[in-house]
Design brief:
Elements (H helix, E strand, L loop, with lengths): L7 E8 L1 E4 L6 E4 L4 E3 L5 E13 L4 E10 L6 E10 L6 E12 L3 E9 L2 E11 L1
Parallel strand pairs: 4-10
Antiparallel strand pairs: 1-5, 2-3, 5-8, 6-7, 6-9, 9-10
C-alpha cells in the first residue's frame, strides 16, 4: 500500500477478452492491443474489454468514470459505474465491456480514468488507417 490516500492503477489493458478460471479465480487476458486500425472512417469497433486493476481504494462504494476523446476539452464519458472495495489492501479487477465504440476520424484519442472524481490515469489510444 502506498502512502497516498488516492487509489492506484496497477494495470490498464485493452483486450479482446478476459477468462476467469472458476477453480482458481485467475484472470487470463486474451488479445491485448494498444492501437486500432481501420480502412474507412468513421470506424466502429464492435467489442473490446477495458481491464483495470486498482489498489489503495478505501473500503466502501466508489465510482469509476472513463472518458475518451480526440481533445482534452471534448471528452465523452463512456463508462460511469459503481464498484465496491473491501479495503486498501485489496486488488480490484474491473472488467469493462465496451461495445460499438465509434471513432469519427484517425488520431490519438485520450483516455481518462477517474475514481471518485480524482484523475488516476490519462493515456492514449492510437486509431490509424
Amino acid at each position: 500500500m502506498s502512502n497516498s490516500n488516492k487509489p492506484q492503477v496497477l494495470c490498464w489493458l485493452l483486450c479482446d477478452g478476459v477468462h476467469i478460471d472458476p477453480a482458481t479465480g485467475k484472470h487470463t487476458i486474451l488479445g491485448v492491443f494498444s492501437a486500432i486500425r481501420g480502412r474507412q472512417f468513421p470506424l466502429t469497433h464492435p467489442f473490446m474489454i477495458w481491464f483495470l486493476t486498482l489498489t489503495d481504494v478505501a473500503a466502501g462504494k466508489h465510482k469509476i468514470k472513463i472518458s475518451l476523446g480526440l481533445a482534452a476539452d471534448a471528452m465523452s464519458v463512456l463508462l460511469d459505474r459503481e464498484f465496491e472495495s473491501q479495503g486498501p489492501l485489496q486488488r480490484i479487477n474491473l472488467i469493462n465491456d465496451v461495445r460499438n465504440l465509434a471513432f469519427p476520424a484517425p488520431g490519438d484519442y485520450s483516455i481518462q480514468i477517474e475514481v471518485d472524481d480524482d484523475v488516476l490515469l490519462v493515456t492514449s489510444l492510437t486509431v490509424a488507417n
